[in-house]
Specification:
Shape: globular
Radius of gyration: 13 Å
Strand order of the largest sheet: 1-3-2
Low-confidence stretches: none
Number of strands: 3
Helix content: 40-55%
Strand content: 15-25%
Number of helices: 4
Structural class: alpha+beta
Order of helices and strands: HEHHEEH
Mean pLDDT: 88
Oligomer: single chain
Distance between the termini: 30 Å
């Protein structure tokens, strides 16, 4: 599978903390602080923090059970 097709398949499955901050209408700093406190679920890839879209949707719906 090519790198481009993998990227296309994953597009929409994760968001950056900047994107999440914009969606939640909070500052970038507040998003990073919330991630540090584990209030926003993240995965770390190298130095990047990414938010799985399905986990974000569960958080926003109030269903935090995994």
């Amino acid at each position: 599978m090519s790198q481009k097709s993998t990227a296309n398949r994953l597009e929409g499955r994760v968001k950056t903390l900047d994107e999440v901050a914009s969606l939640l209408r909070i500052s970038r700093g507040s998003a990073y602080e919330a991630a540090k406190r584990k209030e926003i679920p993240t995965i770390r890839i190298g130095r990047r923090l990414l938010v799985p879209t399905d986990a974000l949707e569960r958080l926003l719906s109030g269903n935090t059970a995994d």
